[in-house]
Amino acid sequence: MTKKSLEREDWRQHIVSSPDVLGGKPRINGTRISVAMILGFLAAESTPDEIIEEYPGLTREQISACLDYARELAEYKVV
Question: Cβ distance 33 to 27 under 8 Å?
Fold first, then answer.
């Protein structure tokens, strides 16, 4: 398995979406913390440690999974 496929598998372990929670927005599995919120923190230059301090239940792996998820979305192309 390549590193790229491991990364994609990894985010799928942490990011879920279901219509009955947050209106179907992608979120951290087992929480109501949306991927968009984590990306917003990162865009505002918050460090993973600062995000974890705000949301102690989060892990670095979950925050990294949000970035991997966003990266994969950015690679999507409409044909």
Answer: yes
- What's the whole-model pTM score? 0.82
| Angle between helices 60-75 and 35-43 in degrees, nearest 10 | 90
Which CATH number is associated with domain 3-75?
1.10.10.10
Q: Look at residue 26 and give its three-state secondary structure.
A: coil
Query: Domain boundaries in the chain?
Result: 3-75
Give the rounded percent of residues in the chain with a pLDDT score beyond 70.
89
CA distance 7 to 12: 9
What's the rounded Cα separation, in Å, for the pair 18 and 6?
Answer: 23
> What is the greatest pairwise CA distance in the chain?
42
d(CA 51, CA 60): 9
